[in-house]
Backbone:
């Protein structure tokens, strides 16, 4: 299969190119030829590496904690409409029984043939989180970090937990943090009340990233920069950011990207099951959530509770409202999450030998076509 465009993202710029795809892989990249016959000609629309969402709880009425294979299958099949070609279904704090069923369900679908975006593994958010910074995480189900309990979760997942959010400062002697690091599981510090020095120690003991920077963490202060300050200062740690313009203003998004740089910023949706369904009342983490007309989601007490954001709309916010350089923005939803997960040798770039994960967007940020491992997973009927 051959596809071409006058704007293909390569090495931090848009170039006119032709891409050859065979058996789900990019096999050749050629100079652009206006007269060359191809299978797909996208004109001047932009071809980007496929988007990767490493922190997303659900969509279309399904939540990872639901442990419903049909719902998970529908999610993977339809998430291409926002340009996503690979993702990590993400849990939310609940009882051990609920979480065990949730990770088993993901593992079972991963072992089968399924359509759509590739499931890269599970992002296990909680239950090892701080009470004060729990956000939408159910208070009654929070637990102390436990290697033994985590081993049970990982066994149930068939070793498919790839990323975990924990409050590392609550982990005595960083026992679980160090165990996870030794197993190759990426540790993201989040929902924590740690100060700046405690945050630095968590990274010294195995943490890799910070979960939804600004939200669920200590803020910046000039005498103790807190976790936000660590995100700004550290150049070897990754940081997730919800870029819907609600969880963080465009100004805060701009400050984060400019401080964090183009190689360590990660754009996430943190979406919940209500995404794609409109305003109304829903259940998230076993508790009621209200989705408002502007897309924001809150608990009854007003606390923010996940999002209904899509990656493509978030990319538009980052570039057009936060005025973040385009290279920073595109890296944040392509190569950077791939590198964090350790799969940067096959995903996140348009390069020979890489998976043929491609997202084609218009100049006004509409997804036109999405290819996941060489197969069309979404086609916009208006283009």
Residues:
């Amino acid at each position: 299969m051959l596809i071409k465009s006058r704007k293909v993202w390569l090495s931090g710029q848009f170039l006119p190119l032709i891409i050859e795809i065979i058996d789900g892989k990019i096999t050749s990249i050629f100079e652009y030829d206006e007269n060359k016959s191809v299978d797909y000609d996208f004109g001047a629309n932009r071809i980007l590496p496929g988007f990767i969402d490493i922190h997303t709880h659900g969509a279309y009425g399904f939540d990872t904690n639901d442990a419903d294979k049909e719902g998970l299958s529908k999610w993977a099949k339809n998430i291409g409409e926002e340009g996503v070609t690979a993702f990590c279904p993400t849990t939310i704090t609940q009882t051990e029984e609920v979480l065990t069923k949730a990770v088993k369900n993901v593992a079972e679908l991963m072992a089968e043939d399924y359509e759509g975006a590739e499931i890269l593994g599970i992002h296990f958010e909680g239950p090892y989180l701080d009470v004060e910074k729990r956000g939408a995480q159910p208070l009654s189900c929070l637990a102390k970090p436990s290697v033994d309990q985590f081993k049970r979760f990982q066994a149930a997942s068939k070793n498919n937990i790839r990323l975990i959010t924990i409050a590392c400062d609550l982990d005595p002697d960083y026992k679980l943090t160090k165990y996870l690091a030794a197993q190759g599981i990426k540790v993201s510090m989040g929902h924590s009340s740690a100060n700046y020095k405690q945050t630095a120690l968590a990274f010294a003991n195995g943490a890799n990233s910070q979960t939804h920077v600004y939200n669920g963490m200590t803020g910046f202060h000039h005498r103790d920069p807190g976790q936000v300050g660590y995100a700004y200062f550290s150049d070897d740690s990754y940081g997730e950011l919800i870029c819907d313009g609600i969880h963080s203003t465009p100004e805060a998004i701009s400050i984060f990207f400019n401080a964090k740089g183009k190689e360590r910023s990660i754009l996430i949706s943190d979406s919940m099951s209500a995404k794609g369904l409109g305003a109304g009342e829903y259940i998230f983490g076993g508790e009621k959530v209200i989705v408002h007309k502007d897309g924001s989601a809150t608990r009854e007490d007003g606390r923010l509770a996940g999002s209904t954001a899509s990656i493509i709309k978030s990319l538009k916010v980052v570039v057009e409202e936060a005025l973040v350089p385009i290279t920073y923005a595109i890296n944040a939803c392509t190569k950077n999450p791939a590198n964090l997960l350790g799969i940067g040798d096959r995903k996140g770039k348009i390069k020979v030998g890489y998976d043929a994960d491609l997202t084609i967007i218009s100049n006004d940020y509409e997804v036109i076509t999405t290819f996941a491992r060489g197969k069309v997973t979404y086609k916009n009927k208006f283009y």
Observations:
- The chain has a mean pLDDT of 96.
